[in-house]
Amino acid sequence: MQTIQGEEAFTLMDFLKDREIGDNFVMKVVDKLAKHTPMLDDMTILECDDGTAMTVKVETEIPWPEWVGYNEGLRGGKTSSDSYQVKCAMMGTKLVIPRKLFRDAKKRGKLHADRLVDERLTKTMRGMRLAMEEMIIYGRLRDNPKGFNGLEKAYSKYGFDGRDGTVLCSDDMKAAFTVFNGGVFQGDNPTADMGSIYLVSWGREGWTGCHPQGLDTGIDVDDMVESEMPDPKKPGTNVKTFERELYWQMGLACGDVNAGGRICNIPRNLMLLESNRTRRDKFVDLLSLMSESVKREGGKAAWYMDKTMRKNIKAIIESQVRGRAIEMKEYMGRANVTTLFDLPIRESDAMQVKEASVEPFAA
Question: Which residues of 17-30 are buried (b: 16+ CB within 10 A; e: fewer)?
């Protein structure tokens, strides 16, 4: 388990180490959440210092006008050292199994009943995983207009123009936070399918999740109860069910914006055009710049992108003479991990969306 500044920062998978999952329902939930979502597998988690809130010390100037917490706006500014409080958001869902189906499975034996619960839990957790990943990246709740601090909000202005190398910020390090890529790849409809690539360093001094005090992983479950729901096969009637409510409380904090970066305004639809073959070197140079510029002290870093972006980058690298810029190797105890400039590439289902154009940072 990783220790940062005297406090334990663990991942969801760390929580499962040396523990028997057995019939422990919370650990079954943790297993489903982490194993199938790379970002949630990578993210470190710290315990809040004030119930469901954590005070974060920022040790670097933040050039953007405002940071927001999960439920309230936070004071902005450009001080070199500042503090803000992050509050945990809570999401909830239900594991629902028709009572007759569950009882029939139990009659066939514990193995069949456990398999039924496992299948239903896998489906239930998919929505929760995607919702949390969406919050971490895009910093918003669909039903909360106030939003909260996420990666997109932190890196919402670009300070380095990848087309010609122009630095738009007074601080060169700030220019590495968000790099403008639009214009490197040219063609029709450049804004038709724009996306981003993030590089994030997880740890106390960079980006980290935070869970409520006394609630490891932030996950809580209620006991199984009998209930009922509308019968989809017989309108106007109900079917008896067994239900179990699940809750996940999690905050997202950033102690240093140098511990992350973003290449924005990337037109997925133009990346592999033959007409852009000679321009791909510049794009790879931007990836190299990001890998060298993001601060990784005391934490582990990874690239985050959607499946299409990953496929395009792999094709671009392999079509050029770039040594071993992209390769398969063991990383952090995991076998056959695809790395780009020695950092793992992690796919995010939540990022397969068309993003809005990012504007320049005003120096």
Answer: eeeeeeeebbbbbb
Q: Are 106 and 97 spatial neighbours (Cβ–Cβ below 8 Å)?
A: no
Q: How far apart are CA 200 and CA 208, in angstroms?
A: 10
Give the max Cα distance, the chain: 70
Tell how far CA 69 is from the center of its chain.
Answer: 17
Q: What is the pLDDT of residue 5?
A: 37
Question: Would you state the pLDDT for residue 321?
Answer: 61
How far is residue 31's CA from residue 128's CA, in Å, rounded to a whole number?
13
Give the pLDDT confidence score for residue 70 in this predicted structure.
39
pTM over 0.70: yes
Q: What are phi and psi of 345, to 5 degrees?
A: -95, 125
Backbone angles phi, psi at 233, to 5 degrees: -90, -20
Closest CA to 199 of 269, 61, 280, 300: 300
Q: How far is CA 260 from the centre of its chain?
A: 12
Which helix (DSSP H) or strand (DSSP E) does residue 119 occupy?
A: helix 110-138
DSSP string across 123-150: HHHHHHHHHHHHHHHH--BTTBTT----
If one counts every other C-beta atom within 10 angstroms of the C-beta of residue 240, the result is: 14
Q: Are the C-beta atoms of 194 and 357 separated by less than 8 Å? A: yes
